């Protein structure tokens, strides 16, 4: 075309394709054989990895990717092939041609299956096209991808179409021997124009009805094939037509129409986009998202409107110029020219297959246009800073998100270098998930860019890719900007920090921590309360806001399982600042008077484990110290996150009796927390401690000081230990508070309170039902110097000697003339009178005490005399012991004990006289025994037996009789056979012999008994008394001989 043609639009031009000639696989110097004679080629079709060539001799050729002939057969014997299409059904092609009689015949081929006889592809179906008396040449052939419809357009403006072709061919495809199907007679589109048909494209309407675009040289028509509107005359869609071969179908189903002034796109809603691209066009085709535009041959000129032609002329350097065709690849999505070049020949066919474009030239050459790699194209765009084009190209090529993010990053870096920080951030946001956030964050850490940075951080949270550090940074950005509104929006449930389902997009713990550090306590409280971070909520209220009352109410709402760990952590601080409310909630917790949580809350609550039993805790605490400070611990509570409980009833403040009457007792089946774990909290609050313990005893076990304690209830060992710990601690508290109220110069009210606590302590000690530990109580009374209680415990334990020694020690520790010494001495005597009966060990103690001091002895002369008389009458002490006791002090005179000594000496003298008479009788008897022994030992001395009666039966002694040397005589019949010893004496001697045998074994244990004995001399004396030292001698003397 001449250079005076109107200029083309200034689309950006790029070289995204490389043009290379295609050579024959067998002869690299030649073009592929199928294209050497381009003039015989009637049509070329491609699709489904198949390229089919139709020639004017009536043959069809299937080509390989190397353009070698795979199959060739005569489709129209004696005729010619005009049009050919490759179906969307694999292996199926449709051809339209003239047979020998110049009748148009439509044929459907299956190139995957061959006829057994001819070896040609199987002919599935055919239809003869009857055009009337004046046939016109076929111009266009079109078919649906499923082969349900086929349409043919003609030069006279008529259009024929076949319906349900796929169904008609289905029976043939199922059998190898089926005959060729004769397709039904085609339907004719109602006459609508006499202009040649230049384009046919099937499309689907919005109502899912099959329709057909019909393009003539001056108009675009729409014809409905299915549905209610089928059969109606075509309707005009546009008053623009197109030349033959200037209509193409895009992969998305749109139809592109090329005119000299522009490209027009038609979709299901009619005409769509229009791309101005001036210049004559002889052919267009589609290749992916590209539109291939072929211009007719023209004489090249340096003054041409086409830069491609001008560049061609300049490169020829004055050589003879032949006519050239211009090939252009237009990208409608990105509005750029991907390739443009001139070719010194006429382009007759354009083939798009195997990812490349092939240009068939009239001079027999075949040119391949191979698309360059995506990286190459992107680098070309990067070099010109055309990042938006790069993004559009990546999208059109279905690039992955990772590949697109690289473009966004480079575009962001470019905008950042130009100072467009907002635009740069918009690009960086698109890289989230593929670019390290730290790369972006470092760029925007400057104080002037905090707002922009917050947008990026917020998007990170929205995509759930933010870590705790990112959350910290974002909230800090809001707080630095003092942007409370955005902070509220971020943290609230409907803000960008949450998904549509309410799921958090940020780390909750981090958000709460940062809000606290920045002083935004209300926001931290909102998060903690909404998402049931109970420990965090309490930490803020107690450590930051010091709202003790709200903290107590919140703990109450958590139920037993949630309140227990919260009180374990914050109990001391709450008691220091809200003692009454805290004590009340502790009582409710340990007594089971909490309202039980809902079933949903119970599902997330873990059971509270009871602690091990133990004694009183007050022994380990010191009272009167400084108030407990708030623990600044950052450790989480040792409990799961709990759902908040139902709203509580108003609290009631009442005495122990009132609480006991109004508060229900929790059933035994529910485990209650151990109150001992809270004992340490009351270290500086003894009065609240008393209230706490008394209420627990009353409500949990019905144990009070005033009422009768229920002892019929069965208790476990653990409950028993809990009860003992309660009452042990209460006893110590009573005595401690008594001492505190009595310190210094107490007021009347203080003295009254001290007496009240003393009375309570005595009630505990006197009770037989209250389960306190008596040994623990003894220690407490001793430490607190509570004399009435100590005396009561000594009496309960039977420690009467300790009672005496206590009063004795007090009397001795005080000055002799003091009232304390006088009273203590009187208590000693009274205690002896009360407990002395049956306890002789107490009298020596009192005796030593009474003579230990002159004043005591003077005041208790009568008591001393009475004591000595009782000792003498009951033989409690030996006189020598009394004398020894009295001699150890210089205060006891002889006159004080003269009467006792005189009386005792007379008794001793009488005893001596009696002992002397007894000794004389023993001597007489001994002499007699010795004389008998001497007679028995003399075997030659005669023995006269004068016994007249039997010692066994007692009757008159008769012969035969037996006489023993022991002077016993028996009838022989009264004696057992072979009896050699006197039966009467044998019994006495047998007992002695048993004792002797026992004593013979005794020496084996003699030494060990001496070592273990407290009085070794007594043990040795006992051995002598048993005759252990002379056993053989005794044995011989005890066996008398028989006559």
Q: Could you explain the architecture of this structure?
A:
The protein is an alpha+beta fold and 1043 residues long. Among the domains are: 9-38 and 280-372, no CATH class; 40-135, Thrombin, subunit H, CATH 2.40.10; 148-159 and 185-278; 378-496 and 503-594; 711-797, no CATH class; 826-901, no CATH class. Helix content is 41%, strand content 17%. It has a 5-stranded mixed beta sheet with strand order 1-27-26-25-24. Strands 7-8-9-10-14 form a 5-stranded mixed beta sheet. A 4-stranded antiparallel beta sheet has the order 2-30-29-28, with no helix packed on it. The longest helix has 40 residues, at 898-937. It is elongated and about 185 Å long.
Quick description:
Helices cover 41% and strands 17% of the residues.
Number of helical regions: 34
The main β sheet shows up as: 5 strands, mixed
Compute the CA-based radius of gyration. Answer: 63 Å
Low-confidence stretches: 1-6, 599-669, 1033-1043
- Proportion of residues in helical segments: 40-55%
Mean pLDDT over the residues: 80
Extended strand count: 32
Enumerate the strands of the largest sheet in spatial order, edge to edge or round the barrel. 1-27-26-25-24
What is the molecular shape? elongated
Please report which band the strand proportion falls in: under 5%, 5-15%, 15-25%, 25-35%, 35-45% or over 45%: 15-25%
Q: What's the quaternary structure here?
A: single chain
Ends distance: 180 Å
Pick out its properties:
1043 residues, alpha+beta, Thrombin, subunit H, 34 helices, 41% helix, elongated, disordered N terminus
């Amino acid at each position: 075309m001449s250079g005076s043609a109107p200029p083309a639009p200034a689309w950006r031009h790029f070289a995204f394709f490389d043009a290379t000639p295609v050579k024959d696989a067998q002869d690299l110097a030649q073009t592929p054989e199928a294209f050497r004679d381009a003039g015989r080629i009637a049509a070329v079709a491609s699709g489904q990895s198949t390229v089919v060539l139709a020639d004017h001799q009536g043959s069809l050729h299937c080509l390989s990717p190397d353009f070698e002939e795979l199959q060739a057969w005569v489709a129209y014997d004696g005729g010619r092939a005009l049009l050919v299409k490759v179906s969307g059904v694999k292996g199926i092609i449709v051809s339209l041609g003239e047979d020998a009689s110049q009748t148009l015949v439509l044929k459907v081929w299956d190139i995957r299956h061959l006829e057994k006889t001819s070896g040609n592809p199987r002919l599935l179906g055919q239809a003869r096209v009857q055009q009337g008396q004046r046939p016109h040449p076929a111009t266009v052939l079109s078919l649906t991808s499923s082969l349900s419809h086929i349409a043919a357009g003609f030069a006279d403006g008529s259009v024929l179409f076949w319906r349900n072709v796929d169904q008609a061919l289905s029976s043939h495809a199922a059998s190898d021997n089926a005959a060729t199907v004769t397709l039904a007679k085609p339907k004719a589109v109602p006459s609508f124009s006499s202009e040649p048909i230049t384009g046919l494209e099937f499309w689907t309407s919005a109502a899912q009805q099959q329709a057909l675009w019909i393009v003539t040289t001056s108009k675009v028509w729409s014809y409905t094939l299915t549905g209610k509107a089928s059969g109606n005359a075509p309707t005009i869609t546009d008053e623009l037509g197109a030349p033959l071969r200037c209509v193409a179908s895009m992969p998305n189903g749109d139809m592109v129409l090329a005119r000299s002034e522009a490209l027009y796109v038609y979709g299901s809603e009619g005409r769509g986009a229009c791309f101005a691209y001036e210049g004559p066009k002889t052919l267009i085709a589609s290749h992916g998202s590209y539109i291939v535009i072929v211009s007719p041959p023209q004489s090249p000129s340096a003054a041409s409107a086409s830069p491609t032609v001008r560049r061609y002329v300049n490169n020829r350097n004055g050589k003879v110029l032949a006519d050239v065709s211009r090939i252009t690849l237009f990208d409608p999505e990105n509005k750029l020219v991907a390739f443009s070049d001139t070719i010194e020949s006429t382009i007759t066919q354009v083939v798009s297959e195997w990812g490349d474009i092939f240009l068939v030239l009239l001079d027999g050459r075949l040119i391949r246009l191979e698309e360059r790699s995506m990286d190459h194209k992107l680098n070309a765009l990067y070099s010109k800073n055309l990042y938006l084009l790069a993004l559009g190209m990546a999208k059109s090529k279905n690039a992955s998100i990772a590949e697109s993010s690289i473009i966004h990053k480079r575009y962001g870096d470019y905008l950042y270098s130009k100072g467009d920080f907002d635009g740069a951030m918009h690009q960086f946001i698109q890289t989230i998930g593929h670019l390290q956030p730290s790369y972006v964050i470092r760029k925007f850490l400057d104080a002037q860019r905090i707002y922009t940075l917050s947008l990026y951080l917020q998007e990170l949270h929205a995509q759930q890719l933010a870590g705790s550090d990112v959350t910290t940074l974002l909230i800090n950005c809001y707080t630095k900007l003092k942007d409370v509104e955005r902070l509220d929006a971020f943290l609230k449930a409907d803000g960008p920090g949450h998904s549509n389902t309410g799921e958090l997009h940020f780390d909750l713990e981090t958000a709460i921590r940062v809000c606290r550090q920045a002083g935004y306590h209300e926001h931290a409280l909102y998060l903690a309360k909404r998402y049931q971070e109970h420990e965090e909520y309490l930490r803020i209220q107690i450590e930051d806001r010091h709202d003790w009352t709200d903290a107590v109410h919140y703990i109450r709402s958590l139920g037993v399982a949630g309140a227990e760990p919260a009180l374990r952590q914050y109990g001391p601080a709450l008691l220091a600042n809200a003692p009454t409310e805290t004590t009340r909630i502790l009582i409710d917790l340990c007594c089971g008077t909490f309202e039980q949580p809902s079933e949903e809350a119970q599902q997330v609550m873990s059971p509270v484990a009871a602690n091990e039993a133990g004694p009183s805790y007050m022994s380990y605490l010191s009272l009167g110290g400084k108030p407990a400070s708030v623990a600044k611990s950052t450790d989480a509570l040792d409990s799961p996150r709990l759902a908040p409980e139902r709203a509580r009833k108003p609290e009631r403040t009442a005495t122990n009796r009132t609480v006991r009457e109004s508060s229900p007792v929790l059933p035994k089946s529910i485990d209650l927390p151990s109150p001992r774990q809270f004992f340490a909290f009351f270290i500086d609050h003894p009065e609240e401690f008393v209230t706490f313990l008394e209420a627990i005893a009353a409500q949990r076990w019905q144990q009070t000081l005033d009422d009768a304690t229920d002892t019929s209830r069965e208790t476990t060992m653990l409950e028993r230990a809990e009860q003992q710990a309660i009452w042990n601690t209460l006893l110590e508290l009573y005595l401690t508070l008594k001492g505190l109220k009595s310190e210094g110069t107490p007021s009347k009210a203080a003295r009254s309170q001290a007496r009240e606590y003393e009375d309570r302590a005595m009630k505990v000690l006197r009770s037989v039902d209250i389960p306190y530990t008596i040994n623990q109580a003894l220690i407490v009374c001793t430490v607190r110097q509570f004399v009435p209680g100590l005396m009561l415990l000594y009496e309960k334990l039977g420690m009467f000697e300790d009672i005496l020694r206590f009063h004795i020690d007090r009397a001795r520790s005080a000055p002799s003339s003091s009232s304390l010494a006088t009273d203590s001495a009187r208590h000693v005597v009274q205690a002896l009178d009360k407990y002395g009966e049956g306890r002789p060990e107490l009298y020596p103690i009192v005796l030593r005490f009474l003579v230990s001091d002159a004043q005591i002895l003077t005041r208790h002369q009568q008591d001393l005399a009475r004591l000595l008389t009782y000792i003498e009458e009951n033989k409690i002490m030996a006189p020598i012991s009394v004398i020894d006791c009295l001699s150890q002090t210089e205060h006891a005179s002889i006159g004080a004990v003269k009467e006792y000594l005189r009386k005792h000496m007379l008794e001793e003298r009488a005893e001596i006289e009696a002992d002397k008479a007894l000794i004389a009788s023993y001597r007489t008897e001994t002499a007699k025994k010795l004389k008998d022994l001497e007679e028995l030992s003399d075997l030659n001395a005669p023995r006269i037996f004068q016994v007249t009666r039997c010692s066994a039966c007692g009757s008159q002694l008769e012969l035969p009789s037996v006489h023993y040397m022991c002077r016993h005589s028996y009838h022989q019949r009264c004696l057992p056979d072979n009896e050699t010893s006197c039966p009467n004496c044998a019994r006495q001697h047998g007992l002695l012999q048993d004792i002797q045998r026992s004593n013979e074994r005794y020496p084996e244990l003699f030494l060990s008994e001496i070592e273990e004995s407290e009085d070794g001399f007594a043990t040795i004396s006992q051995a002598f008394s048993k005759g252990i030292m002379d056993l053989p001698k005794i044995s011989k003397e005890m066996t008398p001989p028989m006559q």
